[in-house]
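Worked problem 6 (solution included).
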Amino acid sequence: MGNKDRGSNTHGKGSGKESRGAGHKGGRGKTGGQKHEKYPQKKWGKSGFKRPQKLVEEKEIVNIGEIDQIIDYLLQREIAEEREDYIYVDVEKLEADKVLGKGKVTNKLKIEAEGFSSKAQQKIEQAGGKVEEK
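Solution. The predicted structure is:
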């Protein structure tokens, strides 16, 4: 038996029985944080505030680029309509509340919605359209 094999079996812990359980390792997981600082832990107790889930409203969103891409489909289905020289879209019919500014606007749109991001408003107006908030 060569010298390189010495101690590789037990790593200095003697018989395997002595170091078998979780007690020898200081517990399983993050146990015993107040006893030994194996894992640094925050102070005990709760912190912060969580709103009740029934009060949290998630707004449905739609991007202005998506509306512009499917405008022909919306006109066909009579979800959108041509008024004067604008294409009028009520975003509520698309089951959305807010319009965001991702995408390109190529048509002159008049869009009515509960809310708009500043980028969406800017893109609609640059293309010669109008924005109406409910």
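Discussion: The chain is about 20% helix and 20% strand.
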